[in-house]
Amino acid sequence: MYGLVNHAIQGLLTKEFGEDKWAEIKEKAGVQEEIFVSMQQYDDSITYNLVGAASEVTKVDAADLLEAFGRYWVLFTAEHGYAEMLDMAGGNFVEFVENLNQLHIRVGGMMPGLVPPSFDVERKGDKGMILTYTSKRAGLAPMVIGLIKGLGEKFDEQDLTIELLNTKQEEDNWISEFDVNW
Ligand code: HEM
User: Ligand 1 within 6 A of 175 CB?
Assistant: First the structure.
């Protein structure tokens, strides 16, 4: 993944647990890099190892860390040069979620090696949807839960709930369905 992701993981973990714990996590994950260059690509194993090591060091479940990371990502991208891109993606929650693929296509214009997820929305009345998340990467459904909750906060949808319905693998895609209501 692009360094922007690892940089954000570093940001969240230092904010929540402090610099010393971050140094311990990096050491346990076997990560040599002093800094992550946002526009440079790193092997996905670095990201997974950081999350695994963070879970061991902090004793927080990896799924809970991924969810917290998803929430944090919405704030982090807004503060790291992507505010305008976020603004363009939609003026309300449902419009924004329907534009996530378009948003990642724009991101891919700057990051040509991007391997983005894709999202499909099937609306259920005015305030509900079945959200299908398709990814080349395994295990990131908890991050999507955090991302959607973070977007709910961004758009002031205080009653938002999200539930993972199922996850399956089809060829080299991981596909998860969520029931989202707000
Ligand atoms: C302007 C804001 C955003 C930027 C710059 C951005 C950029 C990125 C980048 C760089 C990656 C790593 C993929 C790679 O390096 O191959 C990624 C992955 C991902 N993004 Fe975004 N993103 C943004 C907003 C969002 C939002 C709002 C969501 C909400 C659902 C989202 C969902 C995801 C997910 C789930 C992944 C995991 C990758 C996977 O499943 O393979 N992103 N994004």
Answer: no
- Average pLDDT on 48-56 reads 98
Nearest residue to 138 via CA among 69, 33, 45, 73: 45
The predicted pLDDT at position 155 comes to 97
Residue 77 Cβ < 6 Å to ligand 1: yes
Decide whether any atom of ligand 1 lies within 6 Å of the 160 Cβ. no
Residue ranges per structural domain of the chain? 3-60, 92-181
The mean of the pLDDT values for the chain is 97
Query: Is the Cβ atom of 137 under 6 angstroms away from ligand 1?
Result: yes
Residue range 92-181, CATH number: 3.90.1520.10
Question: Which of 66, 71, 73, 93 is the best mutation target for the ligand 1 pocket, counting ligand atoms within 8 Å of the beta carbon and taking the most?
Answer: 73
At 96, give phi and psi (nearest 5°).
-60, -45
Please report, as a single letter, which amino acid is at residue 1: M
Q: Is the pTM here over 0.90, yes or no?
A: yes
Mean pLDDT of 41-50: 98
